Amino acid sequence: MRKVGLLGGTFDPPHLGHLFIAQEVQHRLGLDEVWFIPAHEAPHKVKSHTDADLRLEMVQAAIADNPIFRMNPIEVDRLGKSFTFDTIKLLQEMHPNTAFHFIIGADLVESLHTWHRIDDLVEMLTFVGVGRPGYELVTTYPVTYVDIPELEISSSMIRARVEQGAPVHYLITEAVFDIIKEQKLYAER
To answer: Considering only CA atoms, which of 90, 5, 8 is closest in space to residue 41?
Structure first.
C-alpha cells in the first residue's frame, strides 16, 4: 500500500515553510509522495486574496523541482468551501490502495474537535501534526506528531512584506516570486 502525505491550504502564496514541512514529514514517515491540495475556499478561513488558478500555478512552480511532491487540484475543481471529509472520501475512492496522512499545523491540531465529521475522519486517515510557533500540539484525537524545526514563515507575512516593498527572497522560491512580480500580486491595495 502506498503512503501519501496530504498538505492542504490556501497557499496564498506557497512558501518555504510549506516545502520544509512536506519534506520533513515525507522523510520521517517514509511517505512515497506528498500531495499539495490547494483549497478553493477553506472552511476555516476568510476568502483568499488570490484567484485559485494563480494559487495552483504558484504551487506547481514551488514544487516543480521535487519529484516526490505533486499538486492535486481536487478541491479547486470542486469549487466552494472544501471540507476535508469530502476530499478524503473522494481521494480514497480514486486511490483505493493508498494510506493517506493528513499533515496539519499545531493550530489545526488544537481545533480538530471543530472539524466537520472528525470522528469519521480519524478512521479514514492518519493525522500528522507539526509544531507551529505559539501553539501546543494538544488534542484528544489520535495524531502522529513529527517534531521538526519551526520556521516562522506565513503566507500573511509574505503578503504584507510584498505590499510594503520588503524583500521576500529566502521565504519563497524564485519561481513563486516571479509569478508574484509578473501578476503584481499582493501589491499595495
So the answer is: 8
- Alpha helices by DSSP H, listed for the chain, are 16-29, 52-63, 74-78, 84-94, 106-110, 118-124, 155-164, 174-183
Place of cell 491540495: 37
- Per-residue pLDDT reduced to its tens digit, 70-106: 999 999 998 767 789 999 999 999 999 999 999 998 8
The distance in angstroms from the start CA to the end CA of the chain is: 48
Q: At 96, list the grid cell.
A: 483505493
| Claim: this prediction has a pTM higher than 0.90 | yes
Structural domains of the chain, ranges and CATH numbers in brackets:
2-150 (3.40.50.620)
CB-based contacts of 30: which residues, under 8 Å, 6+ apart? 3
Coil/strand/helix, residue 114 = helix
